[in-house]
Specification:
By secondary structure, the chain is α+β, with helices and mostly antiparallel strands. The protein has one domain (6-139): 7,8-Dihydro-6-hydroxymethylpterin-pyrophosphokinase HPPK (Alpha-Beta Plaits, 2-Layer Sandwich), CATH 3.30.70. The chain contains three helices and seven strands; from the N terminus they run E-H-E-E-E-H-E-E-E-H. Strand 6 and strand 7 (115-117) form a beta hairpin. The radius of gyration is 14 Å and the shape is globular. The two termini are 15 Å apart. 29% of the residues are buried.
């Protein structure tokens, strides 16, 4: 890894349409970002939806990136990838074609109205913890 890149973990989720295809497209789009390399991907797992339970199950996965992008630039890139996959932000916990969340960004701690890192959901989502542990095991 070059000195100007940081290790970032991004969670991917989809519960509408071609879920596995959406995750594959998201991995490819993330790998194609400027000054960014996708360096690992956890196993894909199916999980029950959070919040509103009357919706289809999710496919979830976490990826490890090495990026020279700053956190806000990566957040905007993730939102553009979501929009390209047909994501519409209407209500919290709604079903979605694609959801990309920055879980960890190096050692950074950010607390802004629209960007919180580490992601506040990390402590409460067992599947994220499993996926993160899987990727970090690869780091050893």
């Amino acid at each position: 890894m070059s000195d100007d890149r940081e290790v970032v973990y991004v969670a991917l989720g989809s519960n509408l349409g071609e879920r596995a295809l959406r995750l594959a497209e998201a991995r490819a789009a993330l790998a194609g970002l400027p000054d960014t390399a996708l360096t690992g991907a956890s196993a894909i797992e199916e999980t029950a939806p959070l919040g509103a339970a009357d919706q289809p199950p999710y496919l979830n996965q976490m990826v490890r990136l090495e990026t020279g992008l700053d956190p806000r630039a990566l957040m905007h890139a993730c939102q553009a990838i979501e929009r390209a996959a047909g994501r519409e932000r209407r209500e919290r916990w709604a079903s979605r074609t694609l959801d990309l969340d920055i879980v960890l960004f190096g050692e950074r701690m950010i607390s802004e109205p629209d960007l919180v890192i580490p992601h506040p959901g990390l402590a409460h989502r067992d599947f994220w913890q499993r996926e993160l542990a899987e990727l970090r095991a690869d780091d050893r």
